[in-house]
Specification:
Mean pLDDT: 84
CATH superfamily of the largest domain: Response regulator
Number of helices: 8
Shape: elongated
Number of domains: 2
Oligomer: single chain
CATH topology of the largest domain: Rossmann fold
Number of strands: 15
CATH architecture of the largest domain: 3-Layer(aba) Sandwich
Low-confidence stretches: none
Length: about 240
């Protein structure tokens, strides 16, 4: 086992068994839940890293399950559509990190679990130490050279947190806006550019030539997490 634990939540026994087999093959410890109440209880007990939950479980929509979990836990949540064609936006707005629509292949679902697991392990620390500056995830500050400290506004921090959550992977303008502004994101692209510009002024050594918050042309943005970056407990 690799030390990470995933909850597989579905009312379907065959579905749970198939997912469990694929995840255990990857080295994850797997727990199961077959009701919404059991899912919420297990997701909030602090023993697991990621929840993989069907879009509807024992008649309860996943967005309701996410809404019950989020105030009590920051574990990663992936909602998968078991063929019921539910609303992805509802799930994402309620706190899900990802939504996988049907039909999907098992390899894709497992890859998304790996991506969320990287987010969980990276943001589990309190401070990301880069070459000449650090990001304090608890106090929402960026500490630069010569003791310079930049305070992040709530929106700046949320955008940066979203980018760090899937470091080294592109995030679209719309997915960032959905997470930060709790809407479909269609009208927030220009505002996102403004927030990104503000973040670069505070984080980048040279904002005109960013090394951390990179633009993905025609897609959105990507946070470059250098291989030498360290995750440390905040002192």
């Amino acid at each position: 086992m690799n030390g990470y634990s995933v909850i597989v939540a579905s009312s379907g026994l065959d579905e749970r068994r198939e997912l469990r087999s694929a995840l255990e093959f990857e080295g994850y410890d797997v727990a199961e839940a077959d009701t919404s109440a059991q899912t919420i209880q297990r997701a909030c007990n602090g023993l697991h890293d990621v929840l993989l939950v069907d879009s509807v479980i024992d008649g309860v929509a996943a967005h309701a399950v996410c809404r019950a979990i989020r105030p009590r836990s920051e574990l990663g949540i992936i909602v998968f559509d078991g063929g019921r064609r539910t609303n992805a936006i509802d799930a994402l707005n309620a706190g899900a990190d990802d939504y996988v629509a049907a039909p999907f292949v098992m390899a894709e679902l497992v890859a998304r679990v790996r991506a969320i697991m990287r987010r969980v392990t990276r943001t589990g620390g309190k401070q990301i130490v880069l070459q000449d500056r650090s990001i304090d995830l608890e106090t929402h500050k960026i500490k630069g050279p010569e003791g310079r400290v930049s305070h992040l506004t709530p929106k700046e921090f949320l955008v940066l947190q979203c980018l760090i959550a899937q470091a080294n992977q592109p995030r679209t303008h719309q997915s960032l806006a959905q997470t930060v502004w709790q809407r479909d994101g269609s009208g927030e692209v220009e505002y996102m550019r403004i927030v990104i510009r503000q973040l670069r002024r505070k984080l980048e050594p040279d904002p005109a030539n960013p090394r951390y918050i990179l633009t993905e042309r025609s897609v959105g943005y990507r946070f470059h997490m250098p291989a030498a970056a360290a995750i440390e407990a905040r002192q």
